[in-house]
Amino acid sequence: MELLVLIIYGLSLTVVFVFSLGQFHLSLYYRKIKQTPVRGKEGKQSFGEKEIPFVTIQLPIYNELYVVERLLENIAEFDYPKNKFEVQVLDDSTDETVEIIRKKIETLTSRGVDIQHIRRKDRIGFKAGALQYGLDFAKGEFIAIFDADFLPDPDFLSQTLPHFEEEKVGMVQTRWSHINQNYSLLTKLQAFGLDAHFTVEQSGRNFAGSFINFNGTGGVWRKSCILDAGGWQPDTLTEDLDLSYRAQLKNWEFLYLEEVTTPAELPVTIPAIKSQQYRWNKGAAETAKKHIPTILSSNLGFRRKLHAVFHLLNSSVFMFLFVAAMLSVPALFIKDAHHEWELAFHLASIFLLGFMGITYFYWLSSKRVSPKKTFSYFAKNFPLFMSMSMGLSLHNGIAVFEGFIGRKTPFVRTPKFNIKNSGDKWKGNVYLKNKLSWATLIEGLLALYFSFGIYSGIRLGDFGLLPFHFFLFLGFGTIFYMSLKTSGLFHLLFVKKKLQV
Predict the structure, then answer these.
(1) What does the alpha-carbon distance between residue 146 and residue 150 come to, in Å, rounded to a whole number?
(2) In what order do the strands lie in the sheet with 55-61?
(3) Residue 447: how many CB atoms within 10 A of its CB?
(4) What's the half-sphere exposure (Cβ side, CA atoms, 13 Å) at 224?
(5) By the 8 A CB rule, do 395 and 277 touch?
(6) How far apart are the C-alpha atoms of 235 and 186, rounded to whole Å?
(7) Which residues does 410 contact at the CB level (< 8 Å), separation at least 6?
(8) Catalytically annotated residue among 91, 147, 149, 240
(9) What are the φ and ψ backbone dihedral angles of 259, each rounded to 5 degrees?
(10) CA 421-144-246 angle, 5° bins
(11) If phi over 0 gives left and psi between -120 and 50 gives alpha, with beta otherwise, what is residue 45?
């Protein structure tokens, strides 16, 4: 049994190590790109002598009463010729959002904006279904898509559309920026992680000629590319990643514009973050299951196949991270009981190289987004970000596992808050569910489990895993506390009791 534990532990660490090497490899590609300080713009692009193309702007909406009005007003301020774009508000809402949209559209129509309020009889296919429904009668040669929490700049279309000059370019994605990054520690850590994806990861893959993905919003598609790839399909929770792979497997090229940013609002509560993370990670597993066999049997070169498989399996690292974390505590006692295996444990220290690779990956991102204060920005955020990622390993690992075994769940939207400034409040949001899930209770128990790991390491005089167990304790403890804080149980046990006193 002890040997089996060590084998599974070693295999899990190996997978995490290989994932880390993949991220380090992207870092090397990113280093080759000429570095400049972050700028929101690189100057407006020109259409030259070509006719300005007609664009359909799709806004998929489902119960967004807090943010939908500002989104519509924002889109109406585009500096693109008003006779050259239409707006489709793809509204599947079931609450007062419908009436808010109706009234706002009346106002915008009187200002000369070509905007349609599109309602379906049912919500079949969720976001993918809504996008496909609107696509069937979209007039635009190009399709720009924005989620409800995004606030694209007025010159967004002028910045992106000229990059479709080559007919083989099927999609252009922009970098997300964050309107409420400094709202709280949670938003700062989310921004830290997302910035790495939108700098090192996306740019590195694009530079290497590997597959990249549309991020669901803040990008523009060539309509003929969507149709050629089979349209939007609802069989995964990440319809954006799915369509991206189908299109690139049909030899369409994608461009990533790191220098063009599209501002968006970050979730401000742990339940909202969990909802988003669940959808992203489970959908990625579903997409991997759907496309990896096709990729492996395609005529893509070995390097592109390898990068594509790594890309699609990225989320799987959470399952192996969680397994390695759980087995790391019994591994302490096995090591203490079997000194004859000491050499093997010493050789396992090679896995530290993987951690160094991940560290460099996030260091490069920090250097890009905070060129003047790179060290302080990195030092403040990286340890806490890693700890929170470890704390989400159970939640995200379950999502990935469900994706691979084919367990179907509905598309659960991420609650939006209309939070921009530190003084803005989110309490009372009607979309927040105050249920305390069984997974949250387990996260609390895991915090205790890894505190036992810390104690055991100190008692046995083996300090090698002490930092790992400390980050796990901090991560699961923080996730548990913040989940509890937003639940009705926390209010019942603490807030109400305090008021009574």
Answers:
(1) 6
(2) 115-119, 85-91, 55-61, 142-145, 219-222, 169-178, 253-264
(3) 20
(4) 8
(5) yes
(6) 31
(7) 126
(8) 240
(9) -80, -10
(10) 115
(11) beta
> Stretch 242-258: mean pLDDT, rounded?
97
- Token look-up 């003929």 returns 224
- Answer positive or negative: Cα dihedral of 288, 289, 290, 292: positive
Q: Which residues contact 472 (CB under 8 A, 6 or more apart)?
A: 325, 387, 390, 391, 446, 450, 453
Give me 201's structure tokens. 């990861």
Predicted model pTM: 0.92
The Cα–Cα gap between 456 and 216 comes to 45
> CA-CA distance, 228 to 250, in Å (whole number)?
8
Q: Among residues 260, 264, 225, 223, which one has the least CA distance to residue 244?
A: 225
Q: Which two tokens stand for residue 222?
A: 């060539």
Element (H, E) at 249: helix 239-249
**Are the C-beta atoms of residues 269 and 314 closer than 8 Å to each other?**
no
How does pLDDT run across 286-310, given as a tens digit for each residue? 999 999 999 999 999 999 999 999 9
- What percentage of the chain exceeds 90 in pLDDT? 79
**Which residues in 140-252 belong to E strands, given as ranges?**
142-145, 169-178, 219-222
Q: Do 282 and 399 form a contact (C-beta atoms < 8 A)? A: yes
Q: Give the CA distances from residue 43 to residues 155, 272, 299, 390, in Å, rounded to whole numbers and listed in that order.
A: 10, 35, 39, 40
361's tokens: 């990956």
Cα(392)–Cα(272) distance, rounded to whole angstroms? 13
Q: What is the pLDDT of residue 33?
A: 84
Place of tokens 């007919």: 167
92 counts as catalytic: yes
Name the DSSP letter for residue 35: P
Amino acid at site 335: K
Q: Residue type at 29?
A: Y
Say how many CA atoms lie within 13 Å of 161 toward its Cβ.
Answer: 24
Backbone angles phi and psi of 57, in degrees to 5: -100, 115
| HEC assignment per residue over 57-123 | EEEEECCCCCCHHHHHHHHHCCCCCHHHEEEEEEECCCCCHHHHHHHHHHHHHHCCCCEEEEECCCC
Characterize 74-111 residue by residue with b for buried, 16 or more Cβ atoms within 10 angstroms of its Cβ, and e for exposed: bbbebebeeebbbbbbbbbbeeebbebbeebbeebeee
- Per-residue pLDDT tens for 133-167? 999 999 999 999 999 999 999 999 999 999 999 99
Among residues 91, 92, 147, 242, which one is catalytic?
Answer: 92
Q: How far apart are the first and last CA of the chain?
A: 53
